[in-house]
Amino acid sequence: MKGESEKLPDTVPIARFDLDNVPAEDRFSIWKESISVIFDVEREVDGGSAPFAATLTTCHLGSMLLVDTSSIGQYFQRKSPLIARDGLDHCIIQVYQNGTTRGEWGKRHSTVQPGDVFLLDLTQPLDSCASDFRNLTLMLPRDLLAPHLGAPERLHDLSLARDSARGRLLGQHIRTLWEVATTLSSDEAHCISQGLVQLIGAYFGEGRVEEDRPETGAALLETVRRHIADHLGDPRLTPESLAAYFRVSRSYLYSLFQPLGGITRHIQQQRLRRAYLELTRPSTRPRRISEIAYRVGYRNEAHFSRSFRHAFGMSPSEARSIALQDIRYTARHQDHPIDRRHERWVRELNAPDF
């Protein structure tokens, strides 16, 4: 059944995005708008004249999402403006069933073959090109994975080869999870998710490169990150105050945050991301922009507006205006809109409480 699917009693919610009944000339623009919750996409120049096609089925497993995607080949990007704008602090574990993807992930170039299992940190840039494909994607918040991996950002684009024992086992586990996902109860999904995170940590943790930081440093990094998230409204939140609070040297603190672009940049990004979420959340729209700026640690509204425009390419008022627009699309001659709940699920996965 097309459109919004019903949630069966005590089973996990499932969203099915399907373009089959959409006029061919409208399909890619709708797909591009919907997938922009994660990626900027463009069709290949030599993609041929075949009508665009894409399906996306998402199972909400409570603390993570499992997505089955099939699509025509295209380019996928996450560059700095999108990373800043969407504020996603998630990691994805992906295994291609059919097709390949090649590209630049951070500072690395590689090609992923069917059966390979690879990890991407959505706070880091990527620029890739996929052939016609089908893949399974597990999306989970960094805070869920970090206790088992230490520092997921250091593993951006780490791949477990399809012919390796760990790659074969983890890939098969994800494929089997997909086979049973639609029948799981919420309690079963929670239990399985806990075990899967531990498995990912064990398999990918075993593949860390030698220069990765010690476990103690990774644990401290996550502790400091949580402290920053909890105190964004404090204008005294600085590298110096954090070093003093955690009783470490500033140079050590700087080295911990180097993979994230530096601690000063991290603090500013988190403040602006929180501001963007507050500006676009329905429950906080009545607040004045100056109040939101103050709540995230800015004491000068003009400085806040300049920083916001530099990060997102728009003013705070423009961001609020765009969020008010209804982006749902009703297919011509259809009674039900396309099921796009996956967009909200991605945004709200482990979303902070204000």
TrEMBL record:
Protein name: Helix-turn-helix domain-containing protein
Gene3D superfamilies xrefs: Homeodomain-like
Keyword set, alphabetical order: DNA-binding, Transcription, Transcription regulation
Species of origin: Methylococcus capsulatus
InterPro entries reported for this sequence: AraC-bd_2, AraC_XylS_family_regulators, Homeodomain-like_sf, HTH_AraC, Tscrpt_reg_AraC-type_HTH
Pfam families: AraC_binding_2, HTH_18
SUPFAM superfamilies listed in its UniProt record: Homeodomain-like (SSF46689)
Ranges in a coiled coil: none
HTH araC/xylS-type domain sequence ranges: 222-322
Keyword hit for Kinase: no
